[in-house]
Structure formats: C-alpha cells, structure tokens
Amino acid sequence: MKAPRSPDPVRDESAYWFARRRERDFSAEEQARFAAWLDAHERHRQEYELLDGLWTAADLIPAARLRQLCEEKRPSSRRRFVQLAAAATVAGVALGLGWLLYPSGDYRETLQTRVGERQEVTLPDGSVVQLNSRTRLEIHYREGRRSVELQTGEALFSVSRDPARPFVIDAGPGQVTVTGTRFDVLHEGGEVRVAVESGTVQVAGKAADQPVILTAGKGTRVDGQGRVAPARDVNLQAIVSWRDGKLVFDNATLAEVAAQVSRYREQPLRVDPSLANLRFSSVFSSDDTDTLLSALPRLLPVQVRTLPDGSSEIIPL
Question: Of 122, 86, 87, 80, whose CA–CA distance to 103 is shortest?
C-alpha cells in the first residue's frame, strides 16, 4: 500500500530543508533561515529530527529495495519530492532520500580539493568518499553503473553494497571495480596505487594483463603502461593516515617522501637522483610540512635548499 500524501505544511517545510541542506549550493544565508525555522517551534525540530532518523534508518534497507520504493513514487518536480519525503515520515518508511533527489538514477558531480584541504562527501546511494589534498574526481551514476573518474590525487572510498550497480573507478591507466567495500586509490605521476581496507576489489590495467583481485590488507600498483603488479601486503595504517592529517613514512624512499609531501605544498619538493632510494621512517603533520623539511637534515645525511621559484630540493651534504 502506498503512503498517503501529507497535507501538513510543517512536514513539507521539514522535507524541503532536509533536501536543501544536502545540496552543494546551500548558502550561509539559507543556513541562518533554516536555524531560525528550526528554533521557531518545537514541532519544527521534532519533524526534522524524525526525517533525519529515517535517513539513518535507510542504511538498513537493501539498495535495490530503496530504488524500487523510489521508482514506485517517482516525483515530477521538487514539490513532489517534498510531498513524498513528508509521506515517508507519515508512513514511517525509511526511503532512500538520496535517490529521491535523483529519481532517474542519473547523477553527476565534480569534487575537488585545494592544497592542504581534505573533504568528505556522502553520495546519493550512501557511499562515502574522502578526498585528500589536490584531488579532483568526476562522479556519474546511471542505470546499472556507478562511475568515478579520479583525474588526480587520492581518495578513500566506502562503497555501499549493490551487486546490481557496480562501482567503477577510472584512474589514468587503471580501473577499479567493486560492489561494496572500503579502499584507497592514489592517481599520481601517471601511475595508480590501490589499497584495500575491507571487502574485495578488482584492479585492471589498460594493458592486456589479467585483473588482480585484492582483499583486506592487500594492495597493488598500475604503471603508466597499464600493467598491474601482483597483489602484496600493504601498511594500511600508513596509507590512510592522511585522513587524520598525518604523514606516516614506513621505510619509504626519499623519492616517495618527496612525492607525498608535494601534495601538501604550493610548490613541489624535489630530491636529487643520488638520494632517491635513501630510506626514511617517521611521522609528521600534513599541515606543517616545513617541520618535516627542517627535521630531515637531522635524521639523514642530506640538506634541504629553497630554489628561486619557491620549490625545495633535498640534496647531498
């Protein structure tokens, strides 16, 4: 039985604010208006909290069922969305409200971070993507496929399981395919690195190699020619430490250190080729890479010099 439409303006207003606050163009002025509306009457807050609770409960419903519910009640306008979201509140049905915003299943968005910026975004299907510094990706959800193009940078994906709609990431020479899992992808210097925290991931290259299957604690690289390396054990704690604003180097080469530090600086950090394979282990804040550069000469037989263009270089003593 379909849920009845709501004749209640408070429920309509609650659903409207719920939808607006999840859109990227939600302004500071609108936030002030929303706060005033929320404080104007206790019932406003009750209705909004109930709708927010339904959104949380939607995580317990299989994604295929959420899409089915939304297709049965496909809105033709934003007004219909408000009515349906309010009807969900009346009926106590935890609808997938993200899919109601994009009822046809077609959704596009561009996400980008600046130097030193980190960002977390929840996608319409409940998947979450965390972007590291200097990252840009294009998202396109359509019938039968959830696609992401990681153009540059690094992102950690927590993908909601949906076997009917695979989640596919194109990153330069590599492609990552999952149905539901948690994993980190780095696209840098024409190569791709993938590390899996939970679940199973398939990594393919543009070369004719067989795809590599990764499970929790495993990782691989795809080189510039699209060749995929065999799966290997990886240090997940070090790889995803950027989420907490940390740079963790576990026996990393100075070439790897320079590449990672460069993501957090306006100008790149270079390393003399004679030092590229020198190993280094330590932990620093990604928000203060100057401290790392100051510490390097105390820890290794190197010096750091600043070049006229503002970049830095690690050179021998």
Answer: 80
Model confidence, pTM: 0.66
Is 163 in a helix, a strand, or coil? Answer: coil
Residues 16-32 have pLDDT tens digits of 887 788 777 888 888 88
CA angle 65, 68, 73 (to 5 degrees): 130
- For 280-290, b/e burial (b = at least 16 CB within 10 A) is beeebebeebe
Q: Is the pLDDT of residue 304 over 80?
A: yes
User: How many whole angstroms separate alpha carbon 155 and alpha carbon 197?
Assistant: 13
Q: In angstroms, what CA-CA distances link 11 with 2, 18, 42, 90, 169?
A: 18, 10, 13, 9, 38
Mean pLDDT over residues 281-290, rounded?
A: 90
For domain 107-236, the CATH architecture is Sandwich (2.60)
For residue 4, how many other CB atoms are within 10 A of its CB? 11
Domain regions of the chain by residue span: 9-101, 107-236, 245-316
Residue 219 three-state SS = strand
- Contact between 38 and 44 under an 8 Å Cβ cutoff? The reply is yes
Handedness of CA 225, 228, 234, 236 (dihedral sign): positive
Residue 212 three-state SS:
strand
Tell me the C-alpha distance between 125 and 160, whole Å.
Answer: 7
Residue (of 160, 133, 165, 163) closest to 146 by Cα position = 165
Which residues is 222 bridged to in the sheet? 192, 228
Tell the CATH topology of 245-316.
Phage tail protein beta-alpha-beta fold (3.55.50)
CA distances from 63 to 29, 97, 99, 168 (A): 34, 11, 10, 17
